[in-house]
Amino acid sequence: MKQRIITGVVAAAFFIPFVLYGNLPFTLLVYAMATVGMFELLRMKKMAIFSVPGLIGLLTVYMLLMPDNFAAKVQSITSYSKLEFLVIAALLLLIHSVIVKNHFTFDEIGFVLLSALYIGIGFYYLIETRDAGLQFIIFALLVVWSTDSGAYFTGRKFGKNKLWPEISPNKTVEGFFGGILIAVVSACVMQFIYPFEKPWFILILVTIVSSIFGQLGDLVESAIKRHYDVKDSGKLLPGHGGILDRFDSLLFVLPLFNLLHFVS
């Protein structure tokens, strides 16, 4: 626990200034984190990032991460949209499977493409949400962190019923609802201090749905790790694991914010 707290404080001290400043430094940091996240997924599958599939997957992530204004410039020069670049990546991976005589399989092609989408889309919305305004990214981080903390402490104090033992044996139903409750309380406190120009019922509804999605994002990453029989996605953050261990909830919450048109 001591190591976990120290790592959390150091990581926050490093991350928060980038969040506050935004702009190009924040975008470059997100690209770096996405690179590590893609590496973590490929390593679970025992695939090298410095391989043809690994590099195609990484370039696909970089393409998906492009902020809208930059993607528009790229499209004006190349006449290719993000979707068309994704199609090109899929075709290149299929061609590679033929060249290596099926040593790189159709299943592995699917893994690389889905990994790139999972990482690319989630971190893309991290950039876009910050560009929409500091308030939105603070709110997203608050919902995720308060949900995690609320679920952890509520689960430890009151947890008796397992939520999904086949995937994450330590999570409880009581912790699940406790995380939602603490997230709502935290959102209400933020609304008093740093108010959104949105109705209260919208704020609370978005908080509840986001808290649920954040916990589902955590469970998704737990399911991936359990499938590939690894404890943590990486070792970058002692006591916490890897980048995906820390950002798994945000990778679900941030797209949700935008799909609900909460970010504007």
From TrEMBL:
PROSITE patterns: CDS (PS01315)
Species for this entry: Ureibacillus thermosphaericus
Stored PANTHER family: PHOSPHATIDATE CYTIDYLYLTRANSFERASE
Pfam families listed in its UniProt record: CTP_transf_1
Gene Ontology cellular component annotations, sorted alphabetically: plasma membrane
Transmembrane intervals: 6-34, 46-65, 85-102, 109-127, 133-154, 175-194, 200-220
Catalytic activity: a 1,2-diacyl-sn-glycero-3-phosphate + CTP + H(+) = a CDP-1,2-diacyl-sn-glycerol + diphosphate
Coiled-coil boundaries: none
Any one biological process term the GO annotation gives: CDP-diacylglycerol biosynthetic process
Family: Belongs to the CDS family.
GO MF term set: phosphatidate cytidylyltransferase activity
Protein name, entry field: Phosphatidate cytidylyltransferase
UniProt key word Transport: no
Protein topology in the membrane: Multi-pass membrane protein
InterPro entries given in the database record: PC_trans
Pathway(s) it belongs to: Phospholipid metabolism; CDP-diacylglycerol biosynthesis; CDP-diacylglycerol from sn-glycerol 3-phosphate: step 3/3; Lipid metabolism
Protein keywords: Cell membrane, Lipid biosynthesis, Lipid metabolism, Membrane, Nucleotidyltransferase, Phospholipid biosynthesis, Phospholipid metabolism, Transferase, Transmembrane, Transmembrane helix
Compartments reported by the entry: Cell membrane
EC assignment: 2.7.7.41
